[in-house]
Specification:
Strand content: 25-35%
Strand order of the largest sheet: 2-3-1-4
Structural class: alpha+beta
Radius of gyration: 31 Å
CATH class of the domain at 345-549: Mainly Beta
CATH topology of the domain at 345-549: Pdz3 Domain
Shape: elongated
CATH architecture of the domain at 345-549: Roll
Number of strands: 34
Largest sheet: 4 strands, mixed
Number of helices: 17
Length: 708
């Protein structure tokens, strides 16, 4: 029985890979078919029609009439070989000789060469055709790609196209979305003129945005809708611009790795399984990820009893319908203590203030420093921990404030401004209740304190060393400055964890990288057990190193217990052929426009060259799309066809667009451009294309890092 299951699974994967390969091959086929068909209509003799290049004569081919049809060994495109046509202008003389015919035969036609000399060539040669005819032949490939992009999209929306909606599961601390007050559970329902956008459409609109005008959008929060405009920003080290919205998470666990190895979720009883869907937490029904995370946050220090639906089947005919059948299973997930090294670092300046937050309402600004913080409630009523806000670990401050907010408390804050004057008068800030998870997860992110609505830096200078902690045992002291750190796996680490940790870059704490101590600590939480940190620190004039393994805190817990969630998916499907055509047209126009805007933003420097992908990336994305269904694969082929059409028609010598420019010049001047001039431009174009191909291959193969 197991063998038959394995064979069925292998067959499924093989079928999807075959679909992707055939789809990619078909995009190339229709491009070359355009050249071939129009050439035939114009009476040109076509000697070869190949998908792939027959390098060294390696090919599968068959002669049919006057044309050899085949598949070449190098799958990087295709070509149509016409009589008297050569993409290399240096072979012009050879083209003429190949096309030569006796002037006494009716099959001969007189043409004018670049030097003004007249030649008699075969009427069925490419050179014998008029400029408009040759323009039609050259442009036919691009036109076919646009036509089939449209056809692919029409069919896709008839089958149904899965997509991620632009729902918000989280925002990056300090990001434009965070500062604007976007919260988990919000849904972006319009971006510019795109209604009901997908998350990918949101990403595209942000990446290619006009940074002066920003990205206008409409947001739904419960029954309320509001408009705002966000200006995307690049990170401290550059890369793609972003607004800081994390893709939507469903309540269904990932098929593979539903729990992070070593996490609390991995120790659930009974074990969680891929595909489990959370329907209740501690007996309370949850409808979405935001509802789940609110309970997980409030009860981070307690076990969670998850009611999951297991082994349910998808409804036939309606991919968005509730699953059918299955069983309900109760799973207990223990709390996940925060890992610590025993270092309390100095608190840095506030780097962002959230719109309409308590901090903004009280006049707190980015750039302020918090000198003192205390519970504003009667000290006799405040707990000892709440009276000690000044000495709290900056990484623990958000949770302390959240608990105070749950009790309806306020804080008294004394600020210092970089402008050179202290704000001697403390301000009292009422705290707002927090029902959503905000956390640092990236190396360059600040620490968010949602109850106040601020995000602040935690510096790399040691303020205190916790007694009997790993840091104290490693010899670190107050005043030491950590300059770099690297997470390393221990010998007894889980192999999967060890493999991931080995790929993590070193943290460097300086103004150029803008990496944060909070980012290092956040990274360490993902790899338990079996991770330790190697620190390089400055003590006076001397640099020293220390290695330590973290231990669990007994007073701090992670809301994220290591569950791996699938993304939310919906399906766009047309309910009539007219709607299919309209959606197909909109998709094709949008895809063509995106390519032009992408190239424009590369030219402006807004999109880095490392964002490009080569044949390997294209093949991978095609494969992933095939696994999401035929509709998703066809939409990818729409985008790929649009890319091929636009790029091929750029006015670069050796591309179709370059040939069109030379033909336009010939039509105006009455004879081809000078052979030396054309050869020089082709050499430049060839060097450009080859350099670009080598660059994207190096990116695809990992020889050049894609890190942005």
């Amino acid at each position: 029985m197991m063998a038959s299951v394995d064979l069925a699974e292998y067959g499924y994967y093989a079928l999807r890979i075959l679909q992707a390969a055939l789809g990619l091959g078909f995009v190339i086929f229709v491009h070359e078919l355009g050249h071939f068909a129009v050439a035939k209509m114009c009476g040109v003799k076509c000697e070869k029609f190949f998908i792939g290049f027959d390098i060294g004569g390696y090919k599968i081919s068959r002669q049919w009439g006057e044309t050899e049809y085949g598949i070449g060994i190098l799958p990087l495109g295709g070509y149509v070989k016409m009589l008297g046509q050569d993409d290399n202008p240096a072979n012009y003389a050879e083209q003429v000789r190949e096309s030569m015919a006796s002037g006494e035969t009716v099959d001969a036609k007189e043409i004018v060469g670049p030097d003004g000399q007249k030649y008699m060539v075969d009427r069925r040669s490419y050179m014998a055709k008029s400029v408009p005819q040759r323009m039609a032949i050259i442009s036919a490939g691009v036109i076919m790609n646009v036509i089939f992009a449209f056809i692919f999209a029409i069919v896709a929306y008839g089958l149904g196209v899965p997509y991620m909606p632009a729902n918000v599961s989280q925002t990056a601390p300090g990001s434009p979305a965070w500062r604007a007050g976007i919260m988990p559970g919000d849904e972006i329902i319009q971006i510019g003129d795109i209604t009901d956008p997908s998350y990918n459409e949101l990403q595209g609109a942000v990446t290619l945005a006009d940074l002066d005008a920003g990205v206008p959008m409409r947001v739904r929060r419960g029954d309320e809708e509001f408009d705002l405009t966000l200006t995307p920003e690049a990170g401290a080290t550059g890369g793609l611009v972003r607004i800081g919205v994390v893709s939507p998470r469903s309540l269904q666990l990932a098929d593979e790795n539903p729990a992070v190895p070593g996490s609390a979720a991995a120790n659930a009883s009974p074990p969680l399984e891929g595909g489990d869907e959370i329907i209740a937490v501690n007996g309370q029904s949850v409808a979405d990820y935001a509802a789940y995370s609110a309970i997980a946050l409030a009860q981070a220090d307690q076990p969670l009893t998850l009611t999951v639906r297991r082994s349910a089947k998808a409804a036939q005919g309606d991919p968005d319908a509730e699953p059918i059948g299955g069983e309900e299973v109760e799973v207990t997930v223990p709390p996940q203590p925060t890992l610590r090294f025993g270092l309390v670092m100095e608190m840095g300046q506030i780097v962002a203030v959230q719109k309409d937050s308590p901090a903004e309402q009280q006049g707190i600004k980015a750039g302020d420093f918090i000198d003192h913080m205390a519970d504003a409630t009667d000290a006799n009523e405040a707990s000892e921990a709440r009276q000690q806000l000044d000495t709290a670990d900056p990484l623990q401050l958000p949770e302390i404030l959240r608990q105070m907010a749950a009790d309806g408390r306020s804080v008294r804050i004394t600020l210092r401004r970089e402008e050179g004057r202290d704000l001697a008068e403390p301000i009292v800030v009422p705290l707002r209740p927090v029902t959503w998870v905000e956390e640092t997860w990236a190396p360059d992110q600040p620490v968010p304190a949602a109850a106040l609505g601020i995000a602040y830096r935690v510096l790399n200078k040691i303020d205190k060393v916790v007694p009997n902690s790993p840091a104290e045992k490693a010899g670190l002291r107050e005043g030491d400055v950590v300059v770099s750190a690297k997470l390393v796996a221990t010998d007894d680490a889980d192999p999967q964890i060890a493999e991931i940790v080995a790929t993590l870059p070193e943290f460097e704490f300086n103004d150029d990288t803008d990496q944060s101590w909070a980012g290092l600590i956040a990274s360490a939480q993902n790899f338990r057990p079996g991770v330790q940190v190697e620190l390089t620190y400055q003590r006076g004039e001397e640099k020293q190193t220390a290695t330590m393994a973290p231990v669990d805190r007994d007073d701090s817990y992670q809301a994220d217990r290591g569950l791996g969630f699938k993304a939310v998916t919906r399906t766009r499907i047309a309910h009539s052929f007219g709607e299919q055509v309209q959606r197909g047209w909109d998709e094709t126009v949008r895809s063509l426009g995106l390519v032009y805007r992408f190239l424009q933003k590369i030219g402006e420097g807004q999109v880095p060259l490392k964002a490009l992908g080569g044949p390997v990336t294209i093949a991978k994305v095609a494969g992933y799309s095939a696994f999401d269904g035929m509709g998703k694969l066809l939409i990818f082929l729409t985008m790929l066809s649009a890319n091929l059409a636009v790029i091929n028609f750029l006015p670069i010598p050796i591309l179709d667009g370059g040939h069109m420019v030379f033909l336009l010049y010939e039509g105006i001047r009455g004879r081809p451009a000078s052979e030396k001039f054309v050869v020089a431009l082709h050499a430049i174009g060839f060097a450009l294309i080859i350099s670009l191909m080598l660059f994207v291959f190096a990116l695809d193969l990992g020889l050049i890092s894609r890190k942005l």
